[in-house]
């Protein structure tokens, strides 16, 4: 049986369920200080900690460089010096464009 998510949310609101956690009692949040613990590093230098020591680190570095180029800022800029728009686009995307890392050949794209 397939249940429409909008129907579930609408009925949850009618029952007084918290709209932020949809009644689960918890929310998924990202702590920027854990994601970028060393603000002196640039995106190209591995500022995004969860993507640094993985088998896909090279892919993620190219992806961040492609996102930076598409959004109009440099991936070589130290994280603490990035404009506010860049600090928002990196974790959240812009919602209006997509891009792929140069040279990956994967055909994968992400919202920028």
UniProtKB/TrEMBL annotation:
Query: Looking at the keywords, is Mitochondrion present?
Result: no
Any one cellular component term from GO for this entry?
cytoplasm
Main localization category = cytoplasm
UniProt keywords, alphabetically = ATP-binding, Cytoplasm, DNA damage, DNA excision, DNA repair, DNA-binding, Excision nuclease, Metal-binding, Nucleotide-binding, Repeat, Zinc, Zinc-finger
- Gene Ontology molecular function, alphabetical: ATP binding; DNA binding; nuclease activity; zinc ion binding
Record's keyword annotation contains Nucleotide-binding = yes
Q: Which GO terms describe its biological process?
A: DNA repair
Compartments, record wording: Cytoplasm
The UvrA DNA-binding domain extends over: 31-99
| Biased segments, Polar residues type | 93-112
Which domain of life, per UniProt? Bacteria
Q: Which InterPro entries match?
A: UvrA_DNA-bd
**What segment(s) does the record annotate as region Disordered?**
80-112
Q: What is this protein called?
A: UvrABC system protein A
- Name its species: Streptomyces olivochromogenes
- What does the organism's lineage look like at the top? Bacteria, Bacillati, Actinomycetota, Actinomycetes, Kitasatosporales
């Amino acid at each position: 049986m397939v249940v429409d998510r909008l129907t579930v949310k609408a009925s949850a609101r009618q029952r007084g369920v918290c709209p932020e956690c949809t009644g689960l009692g918890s929310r998924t949040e990202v702590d920027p200080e854990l994601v970028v613990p060393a603000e002196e590093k640039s995106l190209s230098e591995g500022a995004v900690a969860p993507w640094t020591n993985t088998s896909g680190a090279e892919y993620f570095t190219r992806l961040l460089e492609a996102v930076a180029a598409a959004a109009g800022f440099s991936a070589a800029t130290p994280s603490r010096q990035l404009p506010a728009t860049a600090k928002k686009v990196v974790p959240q995307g812009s919602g209006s464009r997509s891009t792929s890392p140069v040279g990956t050949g994967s055909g994968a794209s992400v919202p920028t």
